[in-house]
Write the structure tokens for this entry.
Amino acid sequence: MIEPTAIDEFLPGYLGRQPWFAHGEARHRARAGERVEVGATVRHREVWRDGNPGLVWAILDTTLDGEPVGSYQVLIGLRPSVPSPGFLIGATSRVLGTLAGDGSEWLAYDALVDPELTIVALAEMFDDLHGVRSVRKLTAGKTSTSVVVDEAWLCKVFRRVHEGPNPGVELPARLWEHGFRATLEAVESWHHRGMDLALRRPFFPGAANGLDLAEASLRELFASGLDPQLSPGDFSAEARRIGRMLAAMHIASEAAYGVVPVARDDLLGEVADGLVALGIDGLGADVVEAWTRRCRDGLDEEIATVRVHGNLHLGQLLRSDQGWLILDFEGAPLLPTAERRRPRPVWFDVSSMLRSFDYVAAMTRAARVESELGDDTVEVGAAMWVERNTRAFLDGYRKGRTMSSDVDIATAVEVGEVARAAYEVAYERANRPELESIPVAALRRLVTA
Amino acid sequence: MTLGLPPANRRPPLDATPGADPEWYRTAVFYELLVRGFADLNGDGTGELRGIIDRLDYLEWLGVDCLWLLPFYDSPLRDGGYDIADFFTVLPEYGTVDDAAEVIASCHERGIRVIADLVINHTSDTHPWFVESRQDATNPKADWYVWGDDDQRWADVPIVFSDTEPSNWTWDAQRGQYYWHRFFHHQPDLNYDNPDVAESMLDVVRFWLDLGLDGFRLDAVPYLYERDGTRCENLPETHAFLKRLRATVDAEYGPGRVLLAEANQWPADVVDYYGDGDECHMCFHFPLMPRMYLAVRRAQRFPITEILADTPAIPDGCQWGLFLRNHDELTLEMVTDDERDYLYAEYARDPRMKRNEGIARRLFPLLDNDRRVVELFHAMLFSLPGSPVLYYGDEIGMGDNIYLGDRDAVRTPMQWSPDRNAGFSKADFAQLYLPPLMDPVYGYQANNVESSLRDLSSFLHWIQKMIAIRRQNPVFGTGTFEVIGVQNPAVLAYVRSDAAGEVVLCVNNLSGLAQPAELTLGAYAGATPIEMIGQVPFGVISTDDPTRGWPLTLPPYGFFWFTLVPESPLQP
């Protein structure tokens, strides 16, 4: 048997290769040839399975270039390197390294790529997950890894972990309690050593991700060369339904958590400061100040805030046979837990969806290769698509909240869009620098309009 | 008529033993046929029952299992015969009761069954029962219909023919009262609270079953009774009468005669018409049909999967009736307002195409004459859970004439050949009940049975082959239905499987763009999918990489049917 501590020397290198560690910053910089210093201290360690294969669970406190970057959960599998395990083919970044033991060479690797050990790990986390027949790992997320169990359950194992309750567990239960049905009544959490470390919910096999649906709609539009109303694949009915669903979520959230008023100027100041701090060319303090002045006139002096979703975009939504569902309530991954739980204006969720329409249109447009359609045609089509679905979504939201059509929400939505786009810039700088231009273009358009 | 039919396998005559094949309707392909528009042999401009006998070679070659004859009873024909003036007589233009018996016998000889429309909710206002009932309030038939002193009772009940009828009540000056009608004002509703009415209707059923008919398509069944404070639809009393009707048929004729209900309602309400397997054998699935059109226009599967998920299970021995188009408008009552607006915008660009709450167009023009889409629709019609009902003329891609009144747009003569009057009739053109289509796209000169038979790549040959494949695989009729997970929202995939171990995988691309799909088929690991039309084996379903599904590439509007053949045991 391998001594569990023998893997420790490999942990910093392993973390540095993972997309979920420090928002992928270490991996990104290392690929760019920069020197990266990762530190990892084992806070908790448990041996879940001794022998061949072996399974070790651990919580690590980590640093990047000497700065703390939070705690991470790792599951490490151990097997002899001969015969070479088939599931590791093409997964070299998931291997920690080779160890000597029992007279042969052993491999240490991410246990969630190993179906046999995944089953062992999930049974350890969720009492009744015994007799599992199949596990299927979905593409790894930014903060967690999801595994489909017997096509009936989805288990999400958090990589980045926090002290205290996870909003992804707490929020849907409260909303359900207050009448919101586009989510799950209960998400089961594995709470261990004071932290929510994994959750389990039903899996919807026939469902599709909102981003996939929207991208498909845009591709149909670009291929037909028509305006969105006449093109196949119209998305507006879905956008309207999403609006209604979000309205229902906010109604439930207001009932569950109550409404907290904040001063308009405080809110605007916070958004403006965040924006200026990004240091985007042409969006200096004076320009932002002018924008703030303009917005002030369109807002009441006090603005209602409430517990919001906080990271709403098409990729978080699932279209199922029961309609649209929001299953993921973990909030914005860049923010600490306390910040994610802070009340915000409901418009921040609304605007966040509008930003998502803009994003998907920009990304689908950018993903096009050569075509007989000129760039202008595609750009105009994409803009019309965003406008049509924005209108339908806002219409659905207003109807869901029985809000009269003469209530002016334009400024509130605009402030929300600026706040969201500023977050997006920070996120893309850390994760996908090649996409930074999308939110930057939106900010320029919004702030200097 | 000689059409130059290719040779076909003759089918054995039906086994005349009662109950020989009691659940035949679960695997059958139905063919809905307008007697008036099918074949006119006597040259009076109107088709007749004997015309069907004349064209049985064609129907047998096509491979359909059961004809559904639209009403052929004596009628003033103010509603296509759904206004019956005498339940025991055939409309003289169509022939006689003996002719009807001969149609049934001739079909049975070729292994084809026959069901007929029966309107039990109402009669024509020329029916002797109504003529007598309207005379005064005391005659023997005085309460065979639903009479009232004012027209405000049941004021909230919707009006079906909203284009032409201002109210469900009409004033009768002769009797000095209003009478109730859920359809046209010349179709008074029978009063089923009167036991004599119910008993008389059972006699009508016995009369036709005695003649050998294999069952009925029951028109407008939800509306038999009226009660205060309700929408006068789906009432318990209505179900009680239908159960009595079923019990009578079973007791006196044994199993194998079928009752097919027309109940244009939501699935949760429609399933009540199956009772506990003791009411109707079949019901049409009305809400599914418009959603197929919606799904293809939206290039995503959810309109279809959503309504199927909302469809409750049905009792053993029961079956859904599925259709793409029929003799009525494409009805949009079972969709939301938003969806209706969208479907109008997409499929009824000319306002003349709208009728009541629907669209009066035939299948091919609805689908822009796009053969790929029509084939995709039929692939779904033939593989979703239920028995398909084809509408005459759709198998050769007939069009419509939206300038004709009411729903005549889709009831023009069958196009048999490029000869005069489409080979339908030798009458003078002016004498025809409706003009045949003569437009340059769908007109009979090019678009007819004869030329479709000569053209080996025609839609007619394609659908004949698909019907044959369906007949060889009863799993399409009786199998369970399971949606298969696939990330691409434009792809609809499902598995049908039955107790005999047959497993069929159906994959449909609802988009006009080529699409990739990775199907979650872990439960079928090791099986080899064999494409059913060409018997081509595809790659084995592997679970070597559990993050990836079984990969498949679909052409625009493409579909595949695969038999899943389990991993073969090791060879010795």
User: Anything to note?
Assistant: The interface with chain B takes residues 86, 115, 134-139, 151, 205-209, 212-213, 216-217, 219-220, 223-224, 229, 232-234, 237, 240, 319, 321-323 of chain A (CB under 8 Å). The first helix of chain A runs from residue 11 to 16. Chain A has a mean pLDDT of 90. The two ends of chain A are 66 Å apart (CA to CA).
